[in-house]
Automatic annotation (TrEMBL):
Keywords: Acyltransferase, Transferase. Pfam families: Acetyltransf_1. The keyword Acyltransferase applies. It comes from Siccibacter colletis. InterPro entries: Acyl_CoA_acyltransferase (IPR016181), Bact_Acetyltransf (IPR050832), GNAT_dom (IPR000182). PROSITE patterns: GNAT. Coiled coil: none annotated. Transmembrane segments: none annotated. This is GNAT family N-acetyltransferase. Residues 1-141 form the N-acetyltransferase domain.
Length: 141
């Protein structure tokens, strides 16, 4: 597997992956208004890393610049459970200069367990348009 910084040529695929992965993972939400262009807004001014397996784009992660904040981590549903999310997360964690943070939707139990298995802890809760979320932290070893 390869993880690299994104290139503009990745945009069409990542737009599709972002739309499809949210519909597959966030089944409790009505995604009928979601669009391909949502990816652009969700990653604006963020550092994006793309995971490739045998030359195929299979996932991405985006970090808010200067914030040690993981904003997005999505894996193509057809490629989930193969270690790609773990590799991307570990790559992102290596970029942190202090405690890392993320928000995970409280109903996304699979994601919460995934982050906890990688050393993230729940610090607080909050509300968003998509529902309640958990603020999670990752402390550097």
């Amino acid at each position: 597997m390869e993880i690299r910084c994104w290139q503009e040529g990745d945009r069409p695929f990542l737009r599709t992956l972002y739309l499809h992965a949210r519909r597959e993972s966030w089944t409790w939400l009505n995604g009928s208004d979601w669009q391909l262009e949502d990816f652009d807004a969700a990653t604006r001014n963020e550092r994006i890393y793309v995971a490739l397996e045998d030359g195929h784009r299979v996932g991405f992660a985006s970090l808010v610049e200067n914030g040690n904040f993981l904003h997005n981590l999505f894996i193509d549903p057809a490629w989930q459970g193969k270690g790609i999310g773990s590799a991307l997360l570990e790559h992102v964690q290596q970029q942190f200069t202090s405690t890392g943070a993320l928000k995970c939707l409280a109903k996304n139990q699979r994601a919460i367990e995934f982050y906890q298995q990688h050393g993230w802890t729940i610090e607080a809760t909050g509300a968003s348009p998509e529902g309640e979320y958990l603020l999670m932290h990752y402390r550097l070893p």
